[in-house]
Amino acid sequence: MSELLVSTIIPVFNRPEMVRAAVASVLAQTHRPIEILLVDDGSTDHTPQVLAELQAAHPEEIRVLGQTNAGAGAARETGRLAAGGAFIQYLDSDDLLLPNKFADQLAALEAHPDCAIAYGTSRHVHADGRVLEDPSRHTAEQIDYLFPLLLVERWWHTHTPLFRRWISDAAGPWPPFRPEDWDLEARMAALQPRLIHCGSTVSVQVDHESANRVTRGSGGAALRDAAHFYPRLYGAALLAGVPFDAPEWQRFSDECFVRARLLHQEGEEALGDRLLQLAALSASDKGRLIRSYGLLSRLLGPALGSRLAQLLRTGRWPV
Questions:
Q1: Reported pTM
Q2: Helix (H) and strand (E) counts for the chain?
Q3: Which of 64, 99, 239, 312 has the most CB atoms less than 10 A away?
C-alpha cells in the first residue's frame, strides 16, 4: 500500500458519457500518485467499451473491474477490496471532483494527524449549468464529528470526504440496501473519528434527469430499506455516545414514526412495528403519542389508526 496513493472508486451502470467526465475530473488532480477503479455494475449498453477505452488510454492509473448488476453499494465494495491506496475516495459516475481536492485534503490530514477524514465544500449544480446550491448542505462548515448531525441528515455528499484507509476498512463492507452511503458513514461515526475541513471547494454534485438514478427508485423499496437502516443508525449513535438530551434524537424519533405509519399503510406490519418501537425508544415528550398510535393501529388497522393519531397530535381530523 502506497503511503500517498489515493484510490478513487467509481461505480458505473449505463453511463458511458457521464463516466468520461467523472474520470477526467480525477485525472485532472494536481496530486499524484492516484489510481482509479472503475467498477462496471453489469452495464447493458456500450459503457464497457468506454471503460476499456479509458483504461487503454491510462493503463498505469485506471483499472476496470466488473460484476453482475448488484447496485452501487456492492460495486463500491468491489472497488474497496481491490484498492491499493492509503486514502480512499468515492465518486459517483455522474459527479465531479475539482483539481485541488486531493492536494488540499491530504495537506489538511498531514497537518492534523489526529483526524481520519478530511472534507471540503461541495456545490450542487444542474447538468444545464444552473447553480442549485453553493455551498451544498453543511459542507462549508467545520464540523468535528459526524454525529450528532448524521443522526438526522446526511450533511455532505459521497464525493465530499477523503478517508484514511483505516477508517474505511474499520467501518466494514458496504451494505446491500439503501441508503448505503449513510449506513457506511454511520458505522464510521460509531468509531468517533475526528474530521477536518480543508478550507476550499473540492467537488460538484451534478443533478440531471436519468431513469437509472438511485434516487428515482421505488418508494416502497426505500421504506423497507429504512426499516433495516434506522435501527443500525440508532445503534451507531449509541456507540458514538450521542447524549440523550441532544435535540437530534427527537427529530430521529419523528422520522421513524412517519416511516412506521407509511409502512403500516403499505401493509408492512412487522417492519412498521420495528420502526414504531425505535421511535418510542428515542422519543422525549412525544412518546405517549407514539404508543397511542401503535395501540390504535393494532385495534383499528393502520389507515384509521394513522388518521386518529393525527387527530390526537393536531386536534384536527385529517382530510
A1: 0.89
A2: 11, 9
A3: 64
